[in-house]
Amino acid sequence: MSSMPGAAAKPPGGAEAIPAHKLWTALGVVVAALLTWFLTKQHIPQEMALTAALGVFGIGLWASGALPEYWTTLAFFLFAVLLHVAPPAVIFSGFHSTTFWLVLGGLVIGAAIRFTGLGQRIALLMARALGMRYRNIVLGIALVGLLLGFLMPSSMGRAVLLVPITMALADRMGYAEGRPGRIGMLLAACFGSHVPTFSILPSNIPNTILAGSAETLYGYTTTYGQYLLLHFPILGLLKSAVMVVLILWLFPDRDAEVTKDDDSAALGPMTAPQWRLSVILGLSLILWITDALHHVSPAWVSLGAALVCLLPSLGLTSKRVFNEEIGFASLFFLAGVMGLGAIVAGSGLGPLLVHGFERVAHFSQDTPFWNVGMLATVSSAIGVVTTLAGVPTIMTPMAEELARATGLPLASVLMSQVLGFSNILVPYQSPPLLLSTQLGRVPMAAATKLCLWLFAISTLVLLPLDLLWWRLLGWL
């Protein structure tokens, strides 16, 4: 009977208790949510007030980690349905978004990379190229992530390829779960394949939403080169350098103790499953890179590759991969975050927040630096509430009005959004960042710590430098 499911489960008395400080934090978040509803219901429609309270509840618990993410997500879904803040199709929209299926496909592909040993093989090759110094490894991983931004239009796809390889490399270097070196390497992969690529036009969803909406609403078209020149020097290269320095400072570790002889002995001929998976990944990469030609979403490419990997006859995944290796908790978490963004966008709360910020921003046509800085701040604040993809969805239709209020050119107002949605305060704002951290089993506290430090430096140092760069280019 001991082999039956659940036989080894802990009795209720032996269940792991939630620390008292986390319970108090959770209680504080609930009280803050109730206060938000009570203080706002007299000034805005009831639906918006409930949405604001639900946002405080979800964001507070997700960001603090006071309770498991899956519990917060399920509670969010339940309260959203019971309070009728939006139709069920909107509340559960995360489940039928392409992002959800891209993540699911990515988790299967990641499991196949681990199961076949292909990740270990690529990790050995990377170790030979980068050496065994921890500093060089972190820098190399971040650089690979940035370079992939020029090749692959999807942060999700980049994470699916880079994170499992980085995990294998960390294993090879002897960095076990929870060790600072492993966390630092994985953060370099997660952040490096996503955060700097906001400066490359087709490489992230908010970028493409901004470009498409600007052309549709205003007939404004930004070219690849113009966008790259405006954003890449500061938000791409310099931000990558800052990120690497922060990782090495926040998560220091000693160099690995692996010899070249060990590497040579471990690198044998490729197995048949590794060859099959290499072909699947190669074809997927080609389809991801050429999505502008065939118009097939990266999500369906990822899902198709996952289906092939799951075929039992190919031997690319274990028979129990779907039951034991796929992190469904992370999928629910992702769906909840996207559902909150959809609810906020649909409720009209986003534009209301923008108008509120506009009243306190003190825009003046004589202070262009201040105006762009405040527009970036507004975009960052909207991203906290709606997730990053919600920023261009809400801000772009208001760009003409904001241009009149600030006296800035429409193009400058539109591009100021990039300064905002590229500055991530906490990981839950970005589904690709959530995917990569979940895929790499990176502690949320570690990812949040790096986010907060990078946010602070971006706001205090990189934003002023960006404004000077804009002035040099004639955008201010």
What does this protein look like?
The protein has 476 residues and is mainly alpha-helical. It has a domain at 96-205 and 223-329. Helix content is 72%, strand content 0%. The protein contains 24 helices and no strands. It has helices at 20-40, 46-64, 69-82, 88-91, 98-116, 118-130, 134-151, 155-172, 180-192, 205-218, 224-250, 260-266, 272-289, 291-294, 298-309, 321-325, 328-347, 349-361, 368-386, 390-395, 399-406, 410-421, 431-439, 444-473. The longest helix is centred in the last third of the chain and has 30 residues, at 444-473. The protein starts with 19 loop residues before the first helix and ends with a helix. The model is unreliable at 1-14 (pLDDT under 50).
Overview in brief:
The protein has 476 residues and is mainly α. 72% of the residues lie in helices and 0% in strands.
